[in-house]
Amino acid sequence: MRKREIQKIRKELEAEKLDILDAVKRLKEKEESYLNDEVGDDLDKAAGNSQRELLFYISDHDHQRLDAIEDALQKIDEDRFGVCETCGKKISNNRLIAIPYARLCMKCKPEAENNS
Ligand SMILES: [Zn+2]
């Protein structure tokens, strides 16, 4: 995969990451405004939008996706993006375009991933 294509994927991954964090942030704010009605202002002090804190509100599915995105971004930085974690071969471009954060090639991917 060319550098330019990887940069494009990188942008997409970053956008998706922001999307997830944004959705979680909204969820957290909703939760807090509900809690604030009952407990008062104490929570304001504890309020913060650090990523670690947000993860508390995230669903398992989103959490896994976020992990995979972070992982893919790191791989791009380390110049080992698009390599299968099991067999070490290159993952096909088509697969990477469909699932930019794929960790395994078509041969090694788990059966459960077949629908993607
Ligand atoms: Zn493989």
Short description:
It contains five helices and no strands. With 116 residues, the chain is mainly alpha-helical. The structure holds zinc ion.
How would you characterize the overall build of this protein?
By secondary structure, the chain is mainly alpha-helical. The chain has one domain: DksA, coiled-coil domain (Four Helix Bundle (Hemerythrin (Met), subunit A)). It contains five helices and no strands. The protein has helices spanning 3-39, 42-46, 51-54, 60-77, 93-98. α1 (3-39) packs antiparallel against α4 (60-77). The radius of gyration is 18 Å and the shape is elongated. It starts with a helix and ends in an 18-residue tail after the last helix. The mean pLDDT is 83. The protein binds zinc ion.
Question: What is the CATH homology-level superfamily?
Answer: DksA, coiled-coil domain
Gross morphology is: elongated
Number of helices in the DSSP assignment: 5
Order of helices and strands: HHHHH
Are any ligands bound, and if so which? zinc ion
